[in-house]
Write a structure and sequence with these properties.
With 85 residues, this protein is an all-alpha fold. It contains three helices and no strands.
Length: 85
């Protein structure tokens, strides 16, 4: 889809520059800018999708509960208590 949007942008700008009437030039520029913005967002979305972790790599509920429990453990008996202030 992103390549189609890029081709639409190129076609729109070519139409805008080759047009002989102002209406056709405006229509070509609109197609060009809309296609360019659409292609930009499509390429950005593809880049983000390529670098995200799959859901299988995320922690399960059991693992999250174990992490929370390890954080909430009381400090060792010889350590002074922590004052939150």
């Amino acid at each position: 889809m992103r390549w189609i949007m890029l081709l639409l942008a190129v076609f729109g700008f070519a139409l805008g520059f080759a047009a002989r009437t102002p209406g056709l030039m405006g229509l070509g520029l609109i197609f060009g800018f809309v296609g360019l913005i659409g292609a930009f967002f499509a390429f950005a979305a593809a880049r983000v999708a390529a670098t995200t972790r799959p859901d299988s790599a995320l922690l399960a509920d059991k693992d999250l509960a174990a992490l929370r429990a390890s954080v909430r453990k009381s400090p060792p008996t010889g350590a002074p208590p922590v004052n939150p202030a």
